[in-house]
Amino acid sequence: MVNPSEERTACLVALFHGLVEGMPAGTASVESKRGKNYVDRIISLMPCNPRAAAFWVHIENEWPGIDVSFGSGTTMEFNDASFEAITGLVKQLASAVIAGRCEERFGFLGVRGAIRVDAVNVYWATDFFHPRLIPKTVHYAPYTVPLT
Question: What's the whole-model pTM score?
């Protein structure tokens, strides 16, 4: 019998590999590792462009439980949908991050991150208690830079 958590992990690893295969060679890599409690999994999409945002998914052992993070660690939790719906959303969010349509605003007490899926759909998340003396906004670059 297949562990549902392992099945979900395999599905998301395949999704990330499919995204990387659609890019020029050497643009990004996929990493998969166990989480801190050795039961959950973290699947990462790591860009080679240092100005681009990393993107990762944290799959908790107990369903529902998927978190999506990007950049310095802005995290969005998705717990109220089916795995299929969340997988579709993960693909949309990852594609937007790959295209460079994400940013993080670092304020005095927290970080507010945004991923723009398209002109209408923007996903926001705020993480508090990340103090910064100087507020700043980071606009992340695309994974690939168009040739000019």
Answer: 0.89
